[in-house]
Design goal:
The protein has helices at about 35-40, 50-70, 75-90, 95-105, 105-110, 115-145, 175-185, 200-210, 225-230, 255-265, 295-300, 340-350, and strands spanning about 5-10, 15, 30, 155-160, 190-195, 215-220, 235-240, 240-245, 250, 270, 280, 300, 305, 320, 330, 335. The chain has about 350 residues and is of the alpha/beta class. A 7-stranded mixed sheet has the order 6-5-4-7-10-15-16, with helices on both faces. A 4-stranded mixed sheet has the order 11-8-9-14, with helices on one face. Strands 1-2-3 form a 3-stranded antiparallel sheet, with helices on one face. The two termini are about 30 Å apart. The chain binds 5-S-methyl-1-O-phosphono-5-thio-D-ribulose (MRU).
Length: about 350
């Protein structure tokens, strides 16, 4: 299995694989402060909910090492506040970002002051390690509930990239389930939706799956309904950026349409995400903030303008799939069929 240095600690700083230029260039960039890290998250150098959480955690650590170069501050919370704010505001929808920061923040006051930078780094490394483990479990649990296709290979459609590149770099969530099925010896074929406008499917999902030798076919997003109507797709698996307390799940724009279509054609629709993606403060999907991204992502393709000059643009980066359209919610703690508030709550406390 291929591993990627999505967000890793190298020689005293954060290093992130630049996902904006994949698959044509494979380059990593270095980050020496929270401000730089926040900019990297905002600019999509790193993307995917769990990966953003890992990057933010390392961003906190690198900021503490930067500050400590001038001596131990009188107050760690005060010294770190501006950097934490920048990180927190870098992207609004993926709750893993806030989750990771909330995990790091208490350490500023519970650790002896001179040990804070190293303690923060240890915690960031723990978050990364736990992400690997969670993805492996998600893969195992999800593979068990995939439809039985007998001797015929199973065809799984996915949207965006919820793979190694969107997590700590190894297994992924939705693609973790694909890998889990392969590990069980199943023959798997993936249909990757291109995922306009940022093309995570075409650039990232197709690239990472082909590196693992998993048969992958690329389609544009508007071909999905046609394939579902013709019985080509056995199931749909996506990741999530934030799951509300009632099971509504935000994911890359376009996911909702696939979910509605999957229900119409009786195709199982799976959402795979770690527990850290569940936001109990969001009662339902209407409380999930939806990021509006720059218009240039829609008007331009590969740096070249394709849209008519001066046209108005709307670019919401995510949509919310209602829980009632989700056949299985897959987490590292196990699977639940047709998520509800009660089932989500029971899963978290299991
Ligand atoms: O805008 P992105 O690329 O950060 O959006 C990513 C997604 O929507 C993923 O499907 C989601 O974060 C799950 S990643 C395991």
């Amino acid at each position: 299995m291929t591993g990627f240095a999505v967000a890793v600690w190298v020689d005293g700083h954060l290093s992130m694989l630049d996902q904006r230029v994949l698959p044509h260039e494979v380059i990593s960039r270095n980050y020496y402060s929270a401000e730089e890290t926040a900019q990297g998250i905002k600019d999509m150098v790193v993307r995917g909910a769990p990966a953003i959480g890992c990057a933010a955690a390392f961003g906190v650590a690198v900021e503490a090492f930067r500050i400590a170069k001038q001596g131990v501050p009188a107050s760690w919370p005060a010294a770190m506040a501006p950097g934490l704010k920048l990180l927190e505001e870098s992207r609004p929808t993926a709750v893993n970002l806030r989750w990771a920061l909330e995990r790091m923040r208490p350490l500023l006051t519970t650790t002896p002051p001179e040990e804070v930078p190293q303690r923060l780094l240890d915690e960031a490394q723990a978050i990364l390690r736990e992400d690997h483990e969670a993805c492996m479990q998600i893969g195992r649990h999800g593979a068990r509930v995939l439809p039985d296709t007998g001797e015929r290979p199973i065809t799984i459609m996915t949207h965006c990239n919820a793979g190694a590149l969107a997590t700590g770099g190894v297994y992924g969530t939705a693609l973790g389930v694909v890998r889990g099925a392969v590990d069980l010896g199943r023959k798997v074929r993936v249909i990757a939706c291109e995922t306009r406008p940022f093309l995570q499917g075409a650039r990232l999902t197709a690239w990472e799956l082909l590196q693992d030798g998993i048969a992958t076919t690329l389609i544009t997003d508007n071909m999905a309904a046609h394939l579902m109507s013709r019985g080509v797709i056995d199931c749909v698996i996506v990741g999530s950026d934030r799951v509300a307390a009632n099971g509504d799940a935000a994911n890359k724009i376009g996911t909702l349409g696939h979910a509605i279509c999957a229900r119409r054609y009786d195709i199982p629709f799976l959402v795979a995400a770690p527990i850290s993606t569940i936001d109990l403060q969001a009662a339902d999907g209407s409380h999930i903030p939806i990021e509006e991204r720059p218009a240039s992502e829609v008007t331009h393709l590969g740096g070249k303008r394709i849209a008519a000059p001066d046209v108005a643009v709307h670019n919401p980066a995510f949509d919310v799939t209602p829980a009632e359209l989700i056949t299985w919610f897959v987490s590292e703690k196990g699977v639940i069929a047709e998520p509800t508030r009660e089932k989500i709550s029971a899963l978290i406390s299991s």
